[in-house]
Amino acid sequence: MLLSRLVGLVLLQFFAPAHAHSQAAEVEKPVPILSGNAGVLTYVNAGQGLVDTQLNPVLLVPFGDHWLVEARGEFEGAFQQQPNGSFGGPVSKHLDYLQADYIANPYVTITAGRFLTPFGIFNERLYPEWIRALQPDPLILPVATASSDGAMLRGGFPVGAHANLNYAAYVSVTSIGVDGVESERHVGGRAGVFFPGPRLEVGASWQKVLQDDSKNAFGVHLAWQPHAVPLSVHSEFAHSNQGSGYWIECAYRLSQARFWEKAMRRTELVVRGQQFFNGDISSDAAQALGLPGANTGEADFGVNYFVKDGLKVVGSYGRQLSSAGNFNQWTVGIVYRFLVPLGREGAP
Amino acid sequence: MKRIPVLTIALLLAATAFAGSSSKKEASAPTPAVHSNLDPDAMRTLGEQRFRANCGRCHAAPQKFSPRAMATIVRHMRVRATITDEDMRLVLFYMTQ
């Protein structure tokens, strides 16, 4: 009896702010949305051509003032150049996430379902083709970022006048890894501090596997957009038994150029440097996870041209250096972001 | 594993249908995007600052959509980018002006 009263009191405290909050501020009623991106990219790695076509639909379905069901799928055709010059290859599909979010109060959102693992920032925030500044993935992306199946608490709130704290803590019962790597159970979290003044965010991530040798993975991240120049800097470091590494990327919009101003405003130059160091797993196991099989360094240079809102043409050149062999990689393609409201929008 | 796509499609269709039907009832009574004690100009200025600080961390400014579409987008971004409640409301105000 005492226990049930205690649970009741805790639940009351937890949900009371949400109710009070919904009365305090009315917002426009949201409408379901189908969004996402479609892209066609041509890669030439070490002289080998690959045409990659992707469609990543995102469905957002809000309910009431506090709920959101969201999902993203991926349909991909990777067509490799054959010896006779033609292209052929597999067409794959999978569900990146399907989650229900309950915004309990200004500090806590509860998420359940399959969700993107909040380890670092690339996987959750920068992965979509229309957002990423360079199309090739960072070498360390597969470290601790397989989709999670379970529950998560997350949120962001001010801490003082000049900083916002953001956090995510999750438990995953099963996880389906990259290219069908075995399931696992893990817990983890990420915390970051964002300083709106200098537009600087720094944070750290952690994940612990709850089976086998209970390995830990750690990561730190940084994002910075200085006021003085149209520059965007992102960086991540990750360490795990699967391998360790870092990447740092700078994207510079040529909006300050004093010639061909219309074209320059739409042009972005990108440079990324990164290194990967082998972990405790075999080369074959690393490659099965999508990681390099040997210590690797890479430098990439890219140009993005924003034709119009949601449509950009991309191109990049990279040089990968490793004990397994050095090679060039070229990328050129076009990416389009779409958004279609699925209900009545009302007056704009 | 084969059950996942079927369940997924069923859940998404049901969710879309339910939300779509409820939105029709709500469309007849549009509400202001945000209520605040600040005057609209101050809110717009603050909203633009918060937009550039939060959204600009990852992507360029998109075009503006209808208020109801923006309400969904901002709710999605609140969860995805863990932006604060106040920032979400100011960004929504700015993006719907």
Low-confidence stretches of chain B: 1-33
Main sheet summary of chain A: 16 strands, antiparallel, barrel
Alpha-carbon distance between the two ends of chain A: 53 Å
State the shape of chain A.
Answer: globular
- Residue share in helices of chain B? 55-70%
Question: Could you tell me the strand content of chain B as a percent range?
Answer: under 5%
> Could you give me the name of the CATH homologous superfamily of chain A?
Porin
Q: Could you outline the blueprint of secondary structure elements for this entry?
A:
The complex is a heterodimer of chains A (348) and B (97).
Chain A: H1 2-24, E1 33-45, E2 48-63, E3 67-81, E4 87-88, E5 91-105, E6 108-115, H2 122-126, E7 147-158, E8 164-176, E9 186-195, E10 200-209, E11 216-224, E12 231-240, E13 243-253, H3 261-265, E14 267-278, H4 283-289, E15 296-308, E16 311-322, E17 327-341
Antiparallel strand pairs in A: 1-2, 1-17, 2-3, 3-4, 3-5, 5-6, 6-7, 7-8, 8-9, 9-10, 10-11, 11-12, 12-13, 13-14, 14-15, 15-16, 16-17
Chain B: H1 3-27, H2 40-54, H3 67-81, H4 85-95
Description:
The complex is a heterodimer of chains A (348) and B (97). Chain A has helices at residues 2-24, 122-126, 261-265, 283-289, and strands spanning 33-45, 48-63, 67-81, 87-88, 91-105, 108-115, 147-158, 164-176, 186-195, 200-209, 216-224, 231-240, 243-253, 267-278, 296-308, 311-322, 327-341. Chain A has 348 residues and is mostly beta strands. In chain A, strand 12 and strand 13 form a beta hairpin. The longest helix of chain A is centred in the first third of the chain and has 23 residues, at 2-24. Chain A starts with a helix and ends in a 7-residue tail after the last strand. Chain B has 97 residues and is mostly helical. Chain B folds into two domains: 1-29; 31-97, no CATH class. Helices cover 68% and strands 0% of the residues of chain B. Chain B has helices at residues 3-27, 40-54, 67-81, 85-95. In chain B, helix 2 (40-54) crosses helix 4 (85-95) and helix 3 (67-81) runs antiparallel to helix 4. The longest helix of chain B has 25 residues, at 3-27. The interface between A and B is large, with 63 and 58 residues.
